[in-house]
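Record minuted for completeness.

…
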Amino acid sequence: MFLMLCAVITVQAYAQVDKKARKHEIAMQIKKELNLSDSQVEQWKTIHKEANEKRKTIMQNSSLSKEQKKEQLKALHEEKQSKVMAILNTEQQVKFKELKEKMKEEWKEKRGKNKED
């Protein structure tokens, strides 16, 4: 039983590392493809940090229903996207939209393959 628990904890720890590594990989890809300046990178980080803090607050708010949380998270996502777009120039905005679509398609393909397995 103890070994099973250790195995579960280990798998969860690796999943967390993989998730963080994937987020970092995506961030580096966006920085490179959009040719973000150092100032834009710092603004990007601030926007995402603030959004993550707000997301945690929403998720931990036990007075909200599941539907209310969903609505607030959607509004938060839209707010974050608006702030991100505001720090990008016109060319970067176009590239960012293209990247988002590309990642969305890759995610859908990956989910589809996982459901088949």
Observations:
- Residues 2-14 have pLDDT under 50 and may be disordered.
